[in-house]
């Protein structure tokens, strides 16, 4: 009877009520000698009733003992596990916090390279590195310095201004060199063959004398090619005959100028 009452309190399905009720009646009948196993009435299936949810208009502020017992049963999974104590819950929270902080990546710092370091960057690069790597290697070797976002922005603005200035100088030089004619004379034979060749180095040297105030001493400025009157490229060969030639001069990576070179017999 106690089991039936407990199951009833826990709101078991109606079919379970019927089974337990039949068993209780059978046990009582056998104990009192009022019935035998043959007098047992077969059980009939009773469809489960639709549960009805009853909500009070104003719940009680203090739950009764049966309600507290149900809440506790739900918390413990009807006895399948034991809830953690407050101390255990606090200890579990601390462990979870430590685990999360351990998996978090360390913050990196921003540095400007003063030397080339393989796998890190070249001079002038702004890169992000681990603090320990900066302190133990880059700082000690003088390979980098820490920079702020403001310093990076300032350096970028300076580079942009310098690049714009260089571009203007290159464009001005292109205007001066384009269609300029450089005349050179050298001893030659009756067939026009020069006694000594004229190479790119000599042409460039004479060009610098003609334009002493221009930045023709830069390493990036050079003669790319020489072509003859017929448009053929001399390649790596020097000028060995009198005639008209054309020299292509690279001022910057994307800025070129063309000059005419006239070679006559001295």
UniProtKB/TrEMBL annotation:
The keyword Isomerase does not apply. InterPro entries: Ribosomal_bL9, Ribosomal_bL9/RNase_H1_N, Ribosomal_bL9_C, Ribosomal_bL9_C_sf, Ribosomal_bL9_N, Ribosomal_bL9_N_sf. Residues 109-153 form the Ribosomal protein L9 domain. GO terms for biological process: translation. GO terms for cellular component: ribonucleoprotein complex; ribosome. Keywords: Ribonucleoprotein, Ribosomal protein, RNA-binding, rRNA-binding. Residues 170-264 form the Large ribosomal subunit protein bL9 C-terminal domain. GO terms for molecular function: rRNA binding; structural constituent of ribosome. It comes from the Eukaryota. Belongs to the bacterial ribosomal protein bL9 family. PANTHER family: 50S RIBOSOMAL PROTEIN L9 (PTHR21368). This is 50S ribosomal protein L9, chloroplastic.
């Amino acid at each position: 009877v106690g089991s039936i009452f407990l199951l009833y309190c826990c709101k078991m399905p109606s079919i379970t009520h019927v089974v337990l009720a039949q068993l209780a009646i059978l046990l009582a009948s056998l104990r009192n000698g009022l019935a035998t196993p043959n007098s047992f009435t077969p059980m009939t299936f009773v469809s489960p009733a639709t549960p009805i949810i009853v909500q009070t208009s104003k719940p009680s502020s203090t739950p009764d003992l049966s309600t507290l017992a149900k809440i506790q049963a739900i918390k413990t999974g009807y006895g399948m596990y034991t809830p953690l104590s407050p101390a255990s819950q606090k200890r579990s929270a601390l462990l979870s916090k430590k685990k999360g902080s351990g998996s978090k990546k360390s913050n990196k710092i921003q540095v400007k390279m003063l030397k080339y370091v393989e796998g890190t960057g070249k001079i002038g690069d702004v890169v992000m590195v681990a603090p320990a790597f900066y302190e133990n290697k880059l700082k000690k070797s003088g390979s980098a310095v820490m920079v702020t976002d403001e310093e990076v922005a300032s350096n970028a603005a300076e580079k942009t201004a310098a690049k714009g200035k260089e571009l203007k100088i290159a464009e001005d030089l292109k205007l001066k060199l384009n269609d300029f004619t450089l005349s050179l004379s050298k001893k030659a034979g009756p067939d026009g063959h020069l006694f000594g060749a004229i190479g790119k180095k000599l042409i460039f040297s004479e060009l610098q004398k003609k334009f002493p105030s221009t930045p023709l001493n830069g390493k990036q400025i050079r003669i790319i090619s020489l072509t003859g009157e017929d448009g053929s490229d001399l390649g790596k060969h020097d000028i060995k005959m009198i005639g008209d030639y054309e020299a292509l001069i690279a001022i910057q990576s994307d800025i070129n100028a063309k000059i005419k070179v006239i070679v006559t017999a001295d």
